[in-house]
């Protein structure tokens, strides 16, 4: 019997998507996770949303404190990048250009560099050094640009308004803090 498919929509710039990616192993044995890089800025534009830390000034310091608590709780490093928020269009295109089987490991590598070490993965020289020239060249193709648009439109079309967003059988779960509900549903299925 095959496992249900959970679509995981994320952007490397999203710190809560980093937390979700670090926790995604909690779905092992319950679902097949399909990593779907999207452009968070495109999702925000399409839905009229903004990042949580930009709507109310007091949220930014709280968000970083909250993220530090989550990282300590789950036991992984967190270093807020000086380049936050970075323009991740090219980063997300690189992820869309990679072979599907490589996307999870490559995403984790980029998350660990950006959120774990605080380095700017959106810098073209840094990104090229991390992924290689061939993948960078492929990322600028019309096919890859279309794939990123399709993923972004898919999350918006499903009712998504930010990242991370999980989709199971058309039902949306928003935020890493809702993984427990998704897990509960999968266990009961």
UniProtKB/TrEMBL annotation:
The active site is at 14 (nucleophile). It catalyses: 2-hydroxychromene-2-carboxylate = (3E)-4-(2-hydroxyphenyl)-2-oxobut-3-enoate. One of its GO terms (biological process) is glutathione metabolic process. It comes from the Bacteria. InterPro entries: DSBA-like_thioredoxin_dom, GST_Kappa/NadH, HCCAis_GSTk, NahD-like, Thioredoxin-like_sf. One of its GO terms (molecular function) is glutathione transferase activity. Its EC number is 5.99.1.4. Residues 6-186 form the DSBA-like thioredoxin domain. Keywords: Isomerase. The keyword RNA-binding does not apply. Belongs to the GST superfamily. NadH family. This is 2-hydroxychromene-2-carboxylate isomerase.
